[in-house]
């Protein structure tokens, strides 16, 4: 498609001479053609429109187009007007100033157009004539021109020239609608079919992605004859090679063959080898290379239909990522009768799932395909509701969008001006009269109210001055008593006896410990049960997650035991449980999100007992952490954010947390660039991890005393280290990844562990209870 693509549309429907019937379709023809020809995704023509001009203006435009054409240019001319002939059989195109008795001087001769075409240097010129050549056909149908004229005879000869007419020499080209008052004109039968074939791509008969001139004529012939059997389009094409007028989205994607090693894995006897093949096919399904993606789709469809249950289920899940998805299942609009309302449809999914076309069920639903979906233009009919649908079809399936538009009555606005005119003079005097007296009493009431507090304010200072005096004299006496209180209450000596009976006095901490231990038991049991379907455990369905769960289990067991131990139940145990709760928050959100996602895609998620046990376990750990935090708040000396961030340790923790978050987000960005489908499935891992680690260090920076913050940081970091398991498992099949982000996250977590150790050593490794 080298060179320019230029189009000239001549649309003459208005005539000064009363002998020429007015036409409504040329204006609509021009608008529809401009839209489709200028669309860069379809035809990409530079379009020039001449509307209702005189003959000499039309001739000048035709000559300019042909004279400026270069050899590689594609020129297209479309005439929508009356076609007339003189006494000698010469063909003329009617202009605004055309007189049927003075055709040579007031109309555009077909011979003139032919001469311009022959003298043009362009080797590709297409002439489309939507003109009529005969008498009227039926009542209420507007027919262009009169008499018999063989159009093709007027444009014979030349190389690289093509002429397509709306009808043959003895037929008429009919307009698309009656010329009734108040009704918008519709494109003619011929031009409507032309626009539809180009816009929808239906003219691409061989589905190779291009609409050739020959394919376009065959489509026009079939569609025009289908709508009006009394009209037969004709053609005269003399060109070397194919001329492609437009691009098409009706491309038939030929699946590329499966590589030999992958085909061997698909046919392997070992089911786990076939599961590995499913993972590779899923990756290929997200490829920008559509034949490769289509080959993977066909292979997965075969495995889903013929393989054993758990392999077929995995293949079906993979196919689910490539189904055609539209952002809305239905469109509901409203507009006045005869007018239009618009809406947008967006298609999502991998590239092969976005290779779709849109087909409307009714003519009143206009569909214009865009890069991301389609724009709908829906016309309201008579008062009431119109219902139709748009079918979205692609190589991986189809979807249906219900379309509904309600015609809004137009009679209501007529009554509004009358009621407004009558209401204005009545409302204005009433509001003015009422407003003035209302304002006056309000002002009068404010004055006495303001004057009454004045004496009260003068009286109150006297007792206020006298009241502080007694407390001032009493303050020195409590101070020495407060100083004597610490030695009087020997906490270390009484602590063993007090801690022995501390459980009944503080049941919150004890409940937190028991809940944490029970949660650890539930989590361990859940690892051995089926997570989804009847074959998959958590480790098989979500590789790497057992690694994370084991870290949470360890934290919950250690924290639960410390909370129940006499010497560590006040602060050490609760602090460890709070940190473990941050780590468990990752898994809780992950499991809840998975249940919601699977439930949204299917009424039966097929999640099994393993999922229930893990979900309950993580809920219990988070609840235990909240109870532990409540117990900590009862401990004397504990504070949140008092005096800002103290010491260098919290700042280092915040910096390292930013390193961890940056690493995981960087790895997600790299994975999304390589395999968007896999990135979509692993997004939860790479986003929840950064969120939880940032929340952890912010809490640590706000905690007092430092020993509590250190214990929370240590437990939380140990639990979040387990997240490295599922994140790495989602990357291991993508050998092209650099794993830079994963390494960065691991280094950041290792830094947090080292910081916890250094911080604890600086605190001299003393129990939290003995720290200030």
From TrEMBL:
Stretches for region Disordered: 441-506
TM spans (from-to): 512-533, 545-565, 572-592, 612-632, 644-664, 684-703, 710-731, 743-761
A biological process from GO: proteolysis
Limits of the Caspase family p20 domain: 3-136
Pfam families registered for this protein in UniProt: Peptidase_C14
Entry keyword set: Membrane, Transmembrane, Transmembrane helix
Compositionally biased tracts (Low complexity): 448-467, 483-498
Protein name as annotated: Caspase family p20 domain-containing protein
């Amino acid at each position: 498609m080298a060179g320019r693509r230029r189009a000239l549309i001549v649309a003459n429907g208005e005539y000064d001479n009363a002998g020429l019937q007015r036409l409504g379709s040329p204006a609509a023809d021009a608008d529809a053609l401009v839209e489709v020809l200028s669309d860069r995704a379809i035809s990409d023509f530079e379009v020039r429109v001449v509307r209702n001009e005189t003959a000499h203006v039309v001739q000048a435009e035709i000559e300019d187009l042909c004279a400026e054409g270069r050899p590689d240019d594609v020129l297209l001319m479309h005439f929508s007007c009356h076609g007339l002939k003189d006494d000698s059989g010469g063909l003329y195109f009617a202009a605004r100033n055309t007189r049927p008795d003075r055709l040579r001087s007031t109309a555009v001769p077909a011979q003139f157009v032919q001469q311009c075409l022959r003298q043009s240097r362009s080797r590709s010129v297409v002439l489309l004539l939507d003109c009529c050549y005969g008498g009227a056909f039926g009542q209420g149908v507007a027919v262009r021109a009169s008499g018999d004229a063989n159009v093709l005879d007027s444009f014979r000869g030349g190389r690289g020239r093509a002429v397509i007419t709306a009808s043959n020499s003895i037929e008429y080209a009919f307009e698309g609608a009656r010329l009734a008052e108040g009704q918008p004109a519709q494109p003619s039968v011929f031009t409507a079919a032309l626009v539809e074939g180009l816009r929808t791509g239906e003219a691409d008969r061989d589905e190779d992605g291009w609409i050739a001139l020959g394919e376009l004529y065959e489509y026009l012939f079939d569609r025009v004859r289908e709508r009006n059997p009394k009209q037969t389009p004709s053609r005269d094409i003399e060109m070397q090679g194919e001329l492609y007028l437009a691009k098409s989205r009706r491309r038939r994607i030929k699946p590329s063959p499966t590589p030999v090693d992958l085909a061997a894995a698909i046919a392997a006897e070992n089911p786990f080898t076939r599961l590995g093949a499913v993972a590779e096919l899923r990756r290929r399904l997200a490829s920008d290379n559509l034949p490769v993606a289509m080959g993977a789709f066909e292979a997965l469809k075969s495995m889903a239909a013929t393989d054993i249950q758990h392999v077929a289920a995995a293949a079906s899940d993979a196919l689910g990522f490539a189904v055609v998805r539209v952002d809305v299942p239905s469109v509901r609009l409203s507009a006045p009768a005869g007018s239009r309302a618009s809406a947008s449809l967006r298609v999502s999914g991998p590239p092969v799932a976005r290779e779709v076309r849109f087909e409307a069920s009714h003519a009143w639903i206009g569909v214009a395909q865009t890069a991301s979906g389609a724009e709908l233009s829906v016309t309201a009919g008579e008062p009431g509701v119109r219902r139709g649908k748009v079918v979205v079809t692609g190589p991986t399936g189809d979807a249906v969008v219900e379309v509904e538009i309600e015609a809004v009555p137009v009679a209501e606005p007529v009554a509004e001006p009358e009621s407004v005119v009558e209401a204005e003079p009545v409302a204005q005097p009433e509001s003015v009269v009422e407003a003035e007296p209302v304002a006056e009493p309000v002002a009068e009431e404010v004055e006495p109210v303001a004057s009454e507090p004045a004496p009260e304010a003068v009286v109150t200072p006297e007792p206020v001055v006298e009241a502080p005096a007694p407390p001032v004299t009493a303050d020195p006496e409590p101070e020495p008593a407060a100083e004597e209180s610490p030695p009087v209450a020997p906490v270390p000596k009484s602590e063993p006896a007090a801690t022995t009976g501390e459980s009944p006095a503080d049941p919150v901490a004890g409940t937190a410990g028991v809940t944490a231990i029970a949660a650890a038991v539930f989590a361990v049991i859940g690892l051995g049960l089926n997570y989804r379907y009847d074959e998959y455990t958590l480790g098989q369905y979500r590789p790497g997650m057992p690694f994370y769960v084991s870290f949470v289990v360890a934290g919950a067991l250690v924290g639960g035991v410390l909370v129940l131990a006499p010497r560590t139940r006040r602060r050490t145990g609760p602090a460890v449980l709070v940190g473990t709760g941050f780590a468990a928050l990752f898994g809780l959100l992950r499991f809840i999100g998975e249940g919601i996602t699977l439930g949204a895609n299917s009424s039966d998620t097929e999640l099994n007992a393993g999922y229930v046990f893990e979900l309950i376990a993580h809920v219990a750990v988070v609840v235990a952490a909240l109870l532990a935090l409540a117990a900590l708040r009862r401990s004397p000396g504990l504070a949140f954010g008092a005096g800002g961030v103290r010491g260098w340790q919290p700042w280092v923790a915040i910096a390292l947390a930013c390193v961890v978050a940056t690493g995981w987000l960087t790895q997600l960005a790299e994975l999304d660039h390589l395999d968007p489908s896999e990135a979509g499935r692993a997004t939860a891992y790479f986003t929840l991890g950064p969120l939880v680690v940032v929340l952890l260090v912010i809490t640590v920076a706000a905690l007092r005393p430092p020993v509590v913050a250190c214990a929370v940081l240590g437990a939380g970091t140990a639990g979040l280290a387990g997240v490295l398991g599922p994140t790495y498992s989602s990357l291991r099949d993508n050998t092209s990844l650099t794993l830079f982000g994963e390494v960065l996250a691991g280094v950041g977590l290792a830094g947090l562990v080292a910081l916890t150790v250094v911080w604890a050593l600086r605190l001299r490794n003393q129990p939290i209870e003995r720290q200030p």
